[in-house]
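User: two proteins, same treatment. go.

Assistant:
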Amino acid sequence: MKNRFIIFIVTLFIGVSCAYSQVDLSKYVDPYIGVEGGGNVFPGPCVPFGMVKLGPDCGNKDWNAGWDPTGNIHGFSHTHVSGTGGGCKYGNILMLPMTGEINLDDYSSPRSGEKVLLGEYAVGLSRYNTHARLTALSRSGFHEYTFPEGTDSKIIIDLGSFLQSHEKQMLVGSEVKIVSDTEVEGYSRVRGGWNEGGAYTVYFYAQFDTPATEVGTWKGNKVYSGKLSQTDSNEKTGAYFKYNTTKGQKIRAKVGISFVGLNKARSNLSEMKSWDFQEVKDVAVDQWNQLLLKARVTGTEENKKIFYTAMYHSYLQPVNRTGENPKWVSDEPYYDDYFAIWDTFRATHPLFTLLTPSVQTDMIRSLIDIYKHDGYMPDARSGNDNGRVQGGTDCDILIADAMVKGLKNIDYETALQSMVKNAEVAPGGDERKEGRGGIADYNALGYVSTAYERAGSRTFEYANCDFAIATVASALGKHDVAEKYYQRANNWQNIWNDGIESLGHKGFLWPKNVDGTWWPEDKFSVFTSGTWPDFLYETFSWEMSFYVPHDVNRLIEKCGGKEKFINRLDTYFTHERWDQRWFMGLFQISNEPGFLVPTFYNYAGRPDKTAEVVRKTLQTRYNTTREGIPGNDDSGSMSSWYIFHALGFYPNAGQDVYLISSPLFQEVIISLENGKELKIVAKNANDKNIYIQSAKLNGQELNRCWFRHTDISDGGSLEFIMGNKPSKWGQSGELPPSMSFKNK
């Protein structure tokens, strides 16, 4: 099998001008941005899409990324997710430098002098007077521990530790073997967590640069000095290495991990060539710098810091585990921790398609390979298991997006088979795992009835997913299939209740029973939000009623025409019912169903209003603090949203359409993988000059407030003249495409 996991790193260099090869953009990345305030981002060292995310597990070990702003540090584990909600996942293979006796009930320590930089995490452990520095490459971690003078300095490796929260992970078993006084190996097997997945196993092999004076292991809560191994018996195991240390002595460890086996863990460690901390860190930082160089922006230092940190966050997940799939052997790429596509299809994956299309191609191929072997493409996946489906089968939209944007070397025929299976074959059993829950109703009645959970979200999302199926089928010349799903893409209208009024506006998504009757208004409200068992998932009717991205033109008609639609949007963004950090009016900035709505003004010929909403969001809801992301980053989704709008446009995922908003930077040069450049110039752009006065696309006057991916995919230019007052630009030009236009 080819080592495809290195291909991504190679592609980062393609298209980056040699003239910029020495530019250090990594200095603008602050991993602390978004660690608090619900952002849940991972602050430890890693590389783009790296399998190893090495960082501290703190407090009650119930923070998704491991890091907690206040709790004690238990140690440093090698697997984490970033920017996710719900229950915890991972936190495997934990190590800690300590002194004295091992108290397995509580060996945690208060921290001091914590420092977080790109490619480095450092902290003091005051309980033991030790200090830790960490860095990491794709499949291995590097530890540098500084000890006080003493004869009882230790490094412990805990294989029974993992993150824990309301959706519990559970230890299945672990095993450890001390190979020599400088080597140890073993595994930890855990199940459950966010997606309630089956057991996954993380194998490790570790080397130390200093021989131990004593070694030992433990099982359960009993420590065995001199015993070299502990076999799996469903109890936690671990090991320790003891040293006589001088004051300030440093002991280093390299740790390779694998999801396949011990031999692979040993092999993965070979990527780490040096015992010098700085040299290893420099390799990691260089990988990030080559990625960041794909977008060179001219703007304020603060905006650069937000922008490049957002790029960093966007490229943490999914995780490239090519060659690390324990379930089947394949020559195809393998990615895991799609966590979840419901979050990432809207902005993150389109960003990959723009900046690193070869990577997005590999991700699509991975999805198709998962379908071939597991039976369904995932809407989310973690720990080598599908789950959970939050709304639609949003993998469908990734396939359509790849098709319309011209990604090559993808088996679209098989992809279409998987999409049609999503639409036609009920998953059975746990309908939160994969496929479409409630499709018996959806396909028979034209909507998901209230007999099923998340009926409203499912109906609206399935309609958009059906449009994606039609898009791919049409491109493949399967016109009968396409027509069938174009018709189903209208199903959202079947739960649109024209009789519901709110805040001066009429017509909203509303619960409908299997017999076709509506819920009474004393049972439901347009402001009723919900979660897994409810009618709507992480949204409310006022917001979700806008979710018709494939046919905004028809949505405008249902809302009473352009003027009423514009007024409806105005109410959504300005009403004072909720106006706080995670909301702006009724606009739920922190959650994905509302991501596209600011650009809907464009469909009604008012891009100036899109500019107002977008700029207010960028300027007031994002910053450089630890709360600098307005809510859960959702695997880079919030960050990708920022990146696109900072560039001045936003994708309607599954279509080849970008909707123009308001460019933040005076100049951006994007280095494309094909060696060409996309140059975006916004003359006079600043915090006051947010309105586009005129525009050019590839040197030609652009009077419409949108463009296609094909207009920029081979390089080109976007030129904007900005001003501090709304203009007539974009108001009379051709409107963005909608499905219903096809029938006119």
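Protein 2:
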Amino acid sequence: MSKKIPERSEIAIQDQWALEDLYATDELWQEDLKKLQAEIDELAGFAGRISQSAQELLAYRKLVDMFTIRAERLGNYAMRRGDQDKRDSYYQGMVGQFMKAYVEAEAKTSFETPELLSISDEKMEEFYREEPELELYRRYFDKSRSRRAHILSATEEKLLAAAGEMSQSPQNIFSMFSNADLKFKPAVDKDGAEHPISQGTYIACLESPDRVLRKSAFENYYAAYESFRNTCAATLDANVKQLQFFADARKYASPLEASLDCTEVPTSVYHQLIESVHQNLDKMHRYVRLRKKLLGVDELHMYDLYTPLVAEADAHIEFADAKKTVLEALSCMGEDYCKVLKEGFDNRWIDVYENIGKRSGAYSAGSPVHPYVLLNYTGTLDSQFTLAHEMGHALHSYLSNKNQPTVYSDYVIFVAEVASTCNEALLMEYLLGKTTDKKQRAYLINHFLDQFKGTLYRQTMFAEYELRIAELNQQGTTLTADVLCSEYKKLNELYYGPDVVSDDQIALEWARIPHFYYNYYVFQYATGYSAAIALSRKILAEGKPAVERYLGFLSGGCSKTPIDLLKGAGVDMTSPEPVNTALELFGKLLEGGTSKVLQVDAPYRFRLLRLPVLHSFENNNVFTGSYGMLRFKVTPQITMKTPKEVDMEQSSMRCEFWHGLFCYEKSEMEGEQVFPLSEEGKEQMRLWLLEQAK
């Protein structure tokens, strides 16, 4: 029986993030919002003044810093509350209140850049001499003044700022539609049992060894999007058009150039990534062929690309165990790093489990008090890697906030994925070094290969698609559902190659990808992964010197360009070398014996009789499984010592078995036996079932 997705009220407090660290009550938030609005008016009063004297410019920047801290606090509280349950109109309204104030602030401070540009270089140097405290802001000023060609008049800047709220509409519509309004028909497994589908459970269904379940989940998931294909197309089309509008308004050659200019990353890095991946598509196609072979299927479908090639004996990882493992894996980062990591684990920085209406996926958000991490933890190995990933972001935010002044405490998107993915790489190295079990090692290597597939190749495919639809829009093509589907399917076939069936449903995948609303964000997963692979190996090979360079990078915020920050850590992203090196490693893993390890081990996945963790039975969950033609059902018989404590000695597990193709309800039982509710009892049951299979 599948586990029901709980309501927010059913989630234990210790598994919820501590938003009270930001504001103890909603009323205090409202009071602070009024203070923010007063600061907006005060900032607006500096119009026409900041170019007049060094004193006025300094006073303005100090007030901006205060405003930034308050806005970050307000925005974090509203958005984190809103993401807890997208159905809660009160907190969605709070998000709207904050965004209205933030857009108003942007409009009323739009005078800043034009006024800064009106100051001559000579006069700016005079300001620095008059007010030495302005030196702190020199890099910030230089960055603004370097964009003279893209800055408009004060009136035009005000209009663009006012349009900012509308520019967020496509993303907001997509988020509400996908996370709150869209409903999916349950998937059905080979035994006829239903499994609820949500944004949080969909990939977990695709990871199942049950191919019937995978196919059902895949078809039912995309059937929901198919019902709204034109709505989804109109929403994405609107987003592409708003990006083009702002790029045109600021006199950029393309939305890509406009987006990357803000992060100080050359567009050549984006194009170079796509080119490098195209040159290495043969490795991806080889991986797909290997997957088809190891799964033993006549046709490999898109719903077969997530299930592990090598099964684990017990795939469920309790959250407490995941935290312990991540902490051990990152011990190579030194005591100071691990102390902060443990603080995050112990003090509710993390919102752990899925609930109905909760935002899907995972993210980390920096804040003035401490970072916040959203998870939808499911107990899989992938969930454990996601924990390491998001805590990488969290530590990056924490160290940058701690070591940089407000004006430089944030970091740009380009470097964001480095810290997170480096943690994943270190966790992988730790797990591979720890295990001596051949099958478990093969499982981890397969996961490593899947990371290359999912991060370097798949995210680059997304990046290329984002670029392609922008080009079509520039050419005057309306992005209808048919156009979007056609372009997506072509790319999907190019990247995955001829050995996988490019199912018709996959043409709609663009409709579910949130990153297409993040303004050329997604390519940085691939570049970040490449940089992280290089940095993780430096840390493990060199030890303390590499760690110190890396911690310097994490503490750098945006005090330097992202390219320079990474160079300081030991990686040059203006070169194709990091991407090519990572793809070479992928090729070596495929060629250097890894495929043989997987091939040797693959038959064991079919000889493995899988049972869930004991804790699942303690929670009174019924389990239905299969082993070849053997079918079995395990029903816990629970006796409670107290309302909250299971009496393990008095409790047991009743196991029934049958053979054939039909489910429990349509079959005649051939035998049953009762086993103690213990690890020993579970092993006795496993061996007994193996005897029945013979």
